[in-house]
Amino acid sequence: MNAIFLMLMGLGAMALGYFVYSKFICEKIFKVDPNFRTPAHEMQDGVDYVPTNKYILWGHHFTSVAGAAPIIGPAIAVIWGWVPAFLWVVFGTIFFAGVHDAGAIWASSRNKAKSIGALTGDIVGNRARSIFMIVIFLVLLMVNAVFAVVIANQLISFPSATVPVWGAIVVALIIGQLIYRKLIGLLMVTIIGVVALYAMIYAGPMFPLALPTEVMFGLNDRQSWIILLFVYAAIASLLPVWALLQPRDYINGIQLFIGLGLLYAAVIFASPDIVAPAFNTEVPEGTPSLIPLLFVTIACGAISGFHGLVSSGTTSKQLDKEPDVRFVGYFGAIGEGSLALAAIIAATAGFATLADWQAIYHSFGQGGVGAFIRGGANILQDGIGLDMVLAQTLLTVMVVLFAGTTMDTGLRLQRYIFQEWGSIYNISWMQKAAPATLLAVGSCLLLAFGAGGDGSGGMLIWPLFGTTNQLLAGLTLLVITVMLVKLGRPMWYTLAPLMFLLTMTTLGLLIQLKAFYDKGDWFLFTLDIIILVAAILVILESGSTLTKQIKANKTAKA
């Protein structure tokens, strides 16, 4: 099959989902109100609560949720064949991710921009909140620790990406001042920012920068990059959102969409055939079953619990008008779905022959970022004549900027978790931004360097990311469903995806539990049990609340 047809079918279906389904969900189910006073206005403080133009906020939301995971997951999952991965990305984006992201922003905005963890306490109960926040903390710990490793590895493998990656921060700081102080219009700011970023991408191969590979201050190059990344993320998480987070995410979002546009244009001109099988009947030995592992391998790109953390953690605090929920939340999910679709195409049509593809996918877990960059660069070279090194630099910068903006937001969210714990347990010093940020960074570095000692310790718990992340998405949908029931509105548009997710995630946890037991990996085995028990407890608490509310609604009508 030609990749052009796959691209047109996928993008066409997602566009239909946005123009039709999202309009129905936001207007008829969430009933967004243009006159509702959002927390960004009600609680405006110039730091976290800042009313924001919907296009800028979309840039923040999209680039924050679209980390490396929507590339890694789909580019691994095609080992089962491109059809299952394609169907889950497309239908998952339309009926799961879009509803989840928009719903989380709406629910948080209607409750003073509380995080989904704190909201659980109000909607479900304090016991559920305590368990939920542990799951949230684990997801953030995994994301921050692992994405630092992903970024470090790409900067080591492609030193031509160093200048544009770090230069993007300088550009964002300048743009933040231009926008906030209203020195020039948004269109001109956008043009300046995009031109500056692409100029640096072009210059990157001319001025490759790498840290010394030998030990420096007792650290190798990867360890040094990881520490530098966390120092930057800590500073970024303490700055007002308008100073760096918003402009960085906005201009990265525009630049990254242009990058996606170039990749899709190259698909049209190169017209590559998909060499991977539609359904792979000869998967490598040791590959787990398609069901339920497909639905947790592709988390981001179809639906992701991390999105709920961003939606309720930072996005809802910047929502200018409630109808913006549709553009920011649902269209943000469409953006991530289009990235996941590009990853599928690059990882299946970016190779000359089936044998070349099989050489990459020789065991489960192979592919990922490497397959996306290699396959995508081949398509860019064949389709629009881009130099191979420049094409690899462009795609590497895309991956790193996605991961970097997610890490920025993730560390800020982790800081919020520590501050919320400080508030819950009356620990005054933990409620302050600086100590909470140090705890967030310290926990990530403890995992990264304490487990294995080489900075990649976060990879130890990454096998549980998919299931934990999807569990979080299910629980977020559960909170939204309970809220809808309390308001007397239809619940099936969130309850149906919720039931599917919880079923697949629970099965996934059980399968992983057996795999960890067989390997004798007692650390992951224990962590799997903790997450499984937490899921069951929150489901029971939420189910009880949901049942009581349905009965109360029936009694009230009677």
Automatic annotation (TrEMBL):
Subcellular location: Cell membrane
Transmembrane segments: 6-26, 62-80, 86-109, 130-152, 158-176, 183-204, 224-245, 257-279, 291-310, 330-355, 389-413, 433-453, 459-485, 492-516, 522-540
Record keywords, A-Z: Cell membrane, Membrane, Transmembrane, Transmembrane helix
Limits of the CstA N-terminal domain: 2-348, 366-506
Membrane topology, record value: Multi-pass membrane protein
Gene Ontology CC entries for this record: plasma membrane
Organism domain of life: Bacteria
GO biological process terms, semicolon-separated: cellular response to starvation
InterPro entries: CstA, CstA_N
Oxidoreductase is among the record's keywords: no
Keyword match Aminoacyl-tRNA synthetase: no
Family stated for the protein in its record: Belongs to the peptide transporter carbon starvation (CstA) (TC 2.A.114) family.
Record-given protein name: Carbon starvation protein CstA
Source organism: Alishewanella aestuarii B11
